[in-house]
């Protein structure tokens, strides 16, 4: 819902004023809307666009060199008046005539048509033209009745570029119609938007459903279907749009994925990935792709896909320079494209065995690789428990982080073992793999733990119980330095420090396995006691107050790992 | 919540792939993230930025000429690994060394610090530096502990421009620290974000409250206060930020209002309007203002304000050309600024009396002006009833539209009357004023009604009852043509046509007042009967199915107006 507002009655005017203040470089306000801040050449055709407010960047975000000369700004979802359009058109026109372009909505048709007639009567050649890209709003046999939605972008871009090139009014209008004829859009919505000052949305879509073809003001769509994955949503959009390939289109498309309000960039990128693949599978060449917010509907949840099928002229016009508040292109000459970077996710193998370990160290390494497998299996089992704990303390990814990290560590260890690694190299390599895969704070710390342990163990001897206790002590000291934390800060150290002290105490009294397991029990108890601690804030650590009363996930997972190691000793 | 996803585990990778596919002109993907698609000059310092995913445009949206050379992309809200950073840095570096810059988060500090150490050990000079702009995350005496948030934009912009200019690593690092020292951010949040695949948000803010200083992953803020108006939110942000004017700052600021996820552009503009005023009142010069989404937190609701206090060097670096997926500047030369457009909302007075009306027409005009006052008063009273009806049929603005339009019409009529207008000119002028203020479809149609009536009435005679019935008939025909509607389409015509027929019938049988009032009763009945009609869809008219069972607001308001006129005859 709209939360930032003053008196709802003043919302459209205050929003327009804020827009103008934030975009002084591009626009100047006047009665009815705004025109470019810069002077345009005499004789240039003026492209004036507009409609109701609530769709930003449509329409005010597109005023500037290479696109619109002026924008007429209405109230929320309500067309501006003819008087407003005349005011803006007169400020924008430079003797070449005016093309007033807008979506095909009743109020806009009436007012802008009236404005064009008034301007013509005053000796300013003016024409009103409508975009009709929304394939859901009328059948293919009634294309002229369709609404205009996000297809505004390629149509206004082409038209604005044509006018900027100095084409006359007839030519600019020809480009407008060609671009519109070659543009198709389909949207899906998951929930409606709420008007400023209202508490209820304009419409709702049942939970688990999505509406196909719903208009940007809640106009009825063509179907309500079950909500699928991002890939399935992409399929619906692409398939329906490809059913209506425009006459004269070749295999080139420009694809725009538009967020309607609350769809976020990351999920739109996930969806665009599938759209790109489907278009390629259909044999199409994707001349350009744009993912972002172009024609919104306040806080409506959903996306629309626009396919623009350019010919040579339209490709050129699309690539022409443009400089508006929200669309900019044709900037600095950034130089030649690189051809030395090819792949997204090929993990460079960074772990290598430079020298084989001793026979006994390799035997120890084999044991350790088995233990790492068990640790990974255990952490997969504990994944959701750790994730839940982390949802109190952080962002809930500790479970998945530990699971991914330990699995990659185990598999790196296996690889190194086959290459003849001793125990020290194996541990260090496993640590690097853990850190590289898990990311996050805990990934880094486990990388440090295993790396420091590997350094202590080395590739020659099998350490005695006392030596193991020493190594654990060194690891703990290193971790304290790297993590810059202290006991009581509610971190994994609150389990590790008691473990280290207990192991040192017990190791004189029995064998390693016995001492380790007793110390691991101490660690498990200490981990549970972290529930009583307050989180350490500072050094920008993302811990919430709500973690009080819940054990620290890092301490708990450490205790689990220590116990699993103990079983194997 | 995140709705568009496939397997949540794959979300970050799929999102990164989609980003790369949509931005081929700017970026090339590789293990760990992405680098510029274009070749950079030998010896150039490489700026590598990065952190967790979920904050787009931070960080991938800032790779390109004039800003970053590479981006390291982590999992959702989780730092990337040192191995990823090393991979990206190696692909980005050109012999001038690497500056790795990021927010001050524990995981990032560990991994990027490690990466810088690894690169240096391999002979590539590399330094890890952190931004610390979030004033809520630690006190002024512990500035170095603060988190980095949306202040990334001016800091990375300055640093990237410095590197693009060919400054060496020491100089680029100097600019980084200066820019960071002069940048302060404070955010407010109204609700938390939901991680992909989760059904519950990471955190919640109580209804009616807002959290000040909450971090971009839900880190605790400094206070929870009552939610105020946009102006009050602006005041909180500006006042707290001005308490921390950086050392050495003069009176220049660059202000960035950042949407955290679901705040919409229109409400951000409303807020920016107040911010701009407050900064001016504080005697500051606003060098530049930016309103948009820069550092988001998935679908978190809230905004943050960043104040960057540039010196001469930082102003220049801010204005240097840049070409990234989301920040572009320094494009085409758009020419000189206009100085002939000054005011936002000065309504050009379009109505004028060219010739005085006859005495009797002026007397009629005076009566009409009184009636228009009564119509306006009546419509103010009916405003919420009509708004409610329209919430079923459209977007709920019919009540406010009729109220605004009729009030402006009445005041224009009064003005024209004082200038000696006859009845025809008065009606036409009132129609223009109605249409100009109300906008929307009904505003246009009422403009047409009054204009056509004025033409029929003229400025000479007082029409007879029969002539009035004729004029009404002409008005109805004109309206039908303009509105392109027919009886039964569920529009105001469904009341106007029965009224017109009834008036014609009754007018032979009694005086005008009697006939008019009887016909008005017919219109009122017909208006109520529109409840049974289905809305006319097509010509992109925004009517929802839910209007069935509710009378058409346009027909109802017409009947009210007819009845009010009748009282005065």
Précis, in short:
2 copies of one chain form a homodimer. Chain A is about 45% helix and about 15% strand.
Index terms:
569 residues, Serine Threonine Protein Phosphatase 5, Tetratricopeptide repeat, Rossmann fold, 17 helices, 6-stranded mixed β-sheet, alpha/beta, homodimer
Could you describe the 3D structure shown?
Two copies of one chain form a homodimer. By secondary structure, chain A is of the alpha/beta class. The first copy, chain A, folds into two domains: 8-329, Rossmann fold, CATH 3.40.50.10440; 359-568, Serine Threonine Protein Phosphatase 5, Tetratricopeptide repeat (Alpha Horseshoe), CATH 1.25.40. Chain A is built from 17 helices and 14 strands. Chain A has helices at residues 11-22, 82-92, 106-121, 152-164, 169-181, 230-242, 265-281, 312-319, 359-381, 383-393, 398-418, 423-438, 440-457, 465-483, 493-506, 512-529, 553-568, and strands at residues 27-30, 33-36, 46-53, 70-76, 98-103, 126-131, 183-191, 209-212, 223-226, 252-259, 285-292, 301-308, 322-323, 328-329. In chain A, the strands form three sheets. Chain A has a six-stranded mixed β-sheet with strand order 1-2-4-3-5-6, with helices on both faces. In chain A, strands 9-8-7-12-10-11 form a six-stranded mixed β-sheet. In chain A, helix 3 links the parallel strand 5 and strand 6 (126-131). The longest helix of chain A has 23 residues, at 359-381. The first copy, chain A, starts with 10 loop residues before the first helix and ends with a helix. Chains A and B meet through helix 1, strand 1, strand 4, helix 2 and helix 3 of A and helix 1, strand 1, strand 4, helix 2 and helix 3 of B. Chains A, B: Residues 366-567 form the DhaL domain. Chains A, B: Residues 7-327 form the DhaK domain.
